[in-house]
TrEMBL record:
It comes from marine metagenome. The lineage of its organism: unclassified sequences, metagenomes, ecological metagenomes. InterPro entries: WH-like_DNA-bd_sf. This is Regulatory protein RecX.
């Protein structure tokens, strides 16, 4: 059960499950997943939260690579994201987002 949601910074929250901190998540996850204090959260929703959070981290890492290393191709991004330890699902989803927005070729 969600027992608390605290502001962490401008765009992140701390989510507490059964009075234990679950993690720091993007604020927009509140609406995306319908999070609220008192909600009994299912195992499936927890898995989806973790997957979505990893995709967001992978995408942010890839965007930083665009600026720092001037990487612009899909194979280069896949290699760097894999080296950083992201799952194949996180890599694929983040690359799809970046391709869709035209940030990588």
């Amino acid at each position: 059960m969600i027992t608390d949601i605290q502001s962490h910074d401008d765009d992140q929250i701390r989510l507490f499950l059964n009075h234990e901190q679950f993690g720091i998540l993007p604020t927009d996850f509140i609406l995306k997943f319908g999070l609220r204090v008192g909600l009994n959260i299912s195992h499936d929703t927890i898995v989806k939260l973790l997957q979505a959070e990893e995709v967001m981290r992978a995408k942010n890492f890839a965007i930083n690579l665009l600026h720092e290393k001037k990487i612009h191709t899909k194979p280069e991004f896949e290699k760097e994201l894999r080296r950083k330890g992201f799952s194949q699902e996180g890599i694929s989803a983040s690359i799809e987002d970046l391709e869709r927005t035209g940030l990588i070729k």
